[in-house]
Amino acid sequence: MSDAITSADSPAGSGLAQAGMRFASSEVDTTHGPILYLEGISVSFDGFKALNDLSLTIEDGELRCIIGPNGAGKTTMMDVITGKTRPDAGTAFFGQAIDLTRLTEAEIAHAGIGRKFQKPTVFEQHSVFENLELAMKTDKRVRRTLRARLDDADLDRIGETLSLIHLRDQADRIAGLLSHGQKQWLEIGMLLMQEPRLLLLDEPVAGMTDEESMRTAELCMTLAGRHSVVVVEHDMDFIARIARKVTVLHEGSVLAEGPMDVVQNDPRVIEVYLGR
Fold it and tell me: Rounded to two decimals, what is the model's pTM?
């Protein structure tokens, strides 16, 4: 473990953002604990508590589904994890020693956390292949041009990712011409090119056809183990396909957690969410 990655109490940790230090996701230490650890996280906006003493643990390689009604705190939770929002209270650690509350959004992304928003964002004027090339975790000061020479390892990684996201036969197609679902897969592929340890997927099947949703379920289950995956979704049929462990948020806190069948039959969950 690099000495540059320190706890919140260390002077090096407090100066991390100012130093602009970068990390490799392989440096995330999960030997004695989970890959993501949130404890007592609270966030208020103009007196409204978006998160209220939220605690959550994600194990390395886990696929976790997060559900809950609108306003439950799902988006704010992801904003805290990715550095977009600073918590008013609580701790957030990536692995044992990376204090997420001390890092910028860019540093968190480079440390190994990737986030896919609900609306896909791709380079629409470039091909699918070029999108993946542009997203590669490389020194952009060296790779100054899109047509910089790719070595065999780069080509293999892009080829494997194209197969994984069901777009190998679309490699030369302009991204703007893809279907909505295909753009979603391409954005996931672009995140994978960054070699993340933890993937946050925000409503990955919103607007998809049934067939696209089924393929996305297969993709999520394939990614689990290779990566830790957190899926936030309202489509309960999709959640039922992929769920191993489900966390239900309500009013900024964890209402229930466990296997899908247990959560579905929890009277509190039925009252605040599933019964609606």
Answer: 0.86
Contact 22, 109 (CB under 8 A): no
pLDDT (tens digit per residue) in 48-57: 999 999 999 9
Identity of residue 176: G
* CATH number corresponding to 11-274: 3.40.50.300
Give the domain ranges of the chain.
11-274
With a CB cutoff of 8 Å and minimum separation 6, the contacts of 212 are 179, 181, 182, 184, 205
User: Which residue's structure tokens are 């999108």?
Assistant: 131
Q: For residues 9 and 162, what is the distance between their CA atoms, to the nearest angstrom?
A: 42
Q: Show Cβ contacts of residue 58 under 8 Å, excluding neighbours closer than 6 positions.
A: 34, 35, 36, 37, 64, 198, 228, 230
Does the pLDDT of residue 103 top 50, yes or no? yes
The token pair that represents 145 in the structure block: 């041009």
